[in-house]
């Protein structure tokens, strides 16, 4: 398969990964209907995902032994903590206060954060066009937010703030993954990062959890399993592979599909609606991120 064909396949894989990952917000909102707390839901999601990641890590044991150094191990722990534990925790908390469609639009600022972090830590220059694109992106978020009913309420402000924190931590993970994936390979890196996240979630639950694992309706467990397989395990590998082939900037362009897919899924399964103002805000955000991820 030629380079061009490989990239075309990677684009399709990236699109599928983005759509599946975006479905997570809808599943979280569905589970919250059964009065499940954030940490318990995170625990269900990660523990049901863990066997898959352990299996893949074991299958790549020889590669792990040959490539894992102290520096790489520390980096995996740091970025696993940031990208799949802390980012998910902030995201799940924020979804208690705002709609899934708005969550996905706000979370979509992470490519602009990747740009800033790359400038600070990787010494990549930010151009004037990129600065303009960042301003456009945040303008779109403001338009979206001001269309929300009761947008000045503390709960809405808190929800937006938590999703912004999720975007910041996930962007940090992407910057780190751009360096670590070539070191370990996309499959092994993803498995190790997710295993770190599982440990973090278990420790968190050990401190604050009530250990009432069997007291929830059966829908909670089925939705958690679906979230683990279709919105965690599968898209995590698809996205890592896409970043490996396309690079984080090009992947960010494809990620513009994320807010659109979440809006459609939220309309189908949650009954959420969008005003014309919110649709305009979504278009502005997607346009800003598209500009910011262009090479020229």
UniProtKB/TrEMBL annotation:
Keywords: Cell membrane, Membrane, Transmembrane, Transmembrane helix. Residues 10-145, 158-293 form the EamA domain. InterPro entries: AA-Vitamin_Transporters, EamA_dom, EmrE-like. It is a multi-pass membrane protein. Pfam families: EamA. It is found in: Cell membrane. The chain crosses the membrane at residues 41-61, 68-85, 105-122, 129-146, 158-176, 188-208, 220-239, 251-270, 276-293. Its main location: membrane. It comes from the Bacteria. Signal peptide: none annotated. The keyword Cell membrane applies. The keyword Repeat does not apply. This is DMT family transporter.
């Amino acid at each position: 398969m030629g380079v061009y064909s490989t990239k075309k396949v990677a684009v399709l894989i990236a699109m599928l990964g983005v759509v599946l990952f975006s479905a997570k917000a809808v599943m979280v909102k569905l589970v919250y209907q059964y009065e499940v707390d954030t940490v318990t839901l995170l625990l269900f999601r990660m523990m049901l995902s863990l066997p898959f990641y352990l299996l893949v890590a074991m299958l790549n044991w020889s590669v792990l032994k040959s490539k894992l150094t102290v520096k790489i191990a520390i980096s995996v722990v740091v970025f696993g903590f940031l990208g799949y534990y802390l980012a998910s925790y902030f995201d799940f908390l924020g979804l208690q206060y705002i709609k899934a469609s708005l969550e996905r639009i706000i979370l979509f600022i992470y490519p602009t954060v990747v740009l800033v972090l790359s400038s600070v830590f990787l010494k990549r220059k930010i151009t004037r066009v990129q600065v303009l694109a960042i301003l456009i992106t945040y303008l779109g978020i403001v338009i979206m937010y001001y269309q929300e009913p009761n947008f000045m309420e503390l709960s809405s402000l808190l929800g937006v703030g938590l999703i912004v924190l999720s975007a910041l931590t996930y962007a940090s993970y992407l910057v780190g993954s751009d360096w670590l994936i070539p070191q370990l390979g996309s499959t092994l890196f993803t498995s190790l990062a997710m295993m770190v996240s599982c440990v973090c979630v278990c420790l968190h639950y050990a401190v604050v959890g009530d250990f009432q694992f069997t007291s929830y309706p059966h829908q909670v467990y089925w939705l958690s399993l679906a979230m683990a397989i279709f919105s965690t395990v599968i898209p995590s590998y698809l996205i890592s592979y896409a970043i490996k082939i396309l690079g984080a900037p090009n992947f960010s362009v494809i990620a513009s599909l994320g807010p659109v897919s979440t809006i459609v899924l939220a309309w189908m399964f949650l009954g959420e609606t969008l005003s014309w103002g919110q649709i305009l805000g979504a278009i502005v955000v997607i346009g800003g991120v598209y500009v910011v991820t262009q090479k020229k």
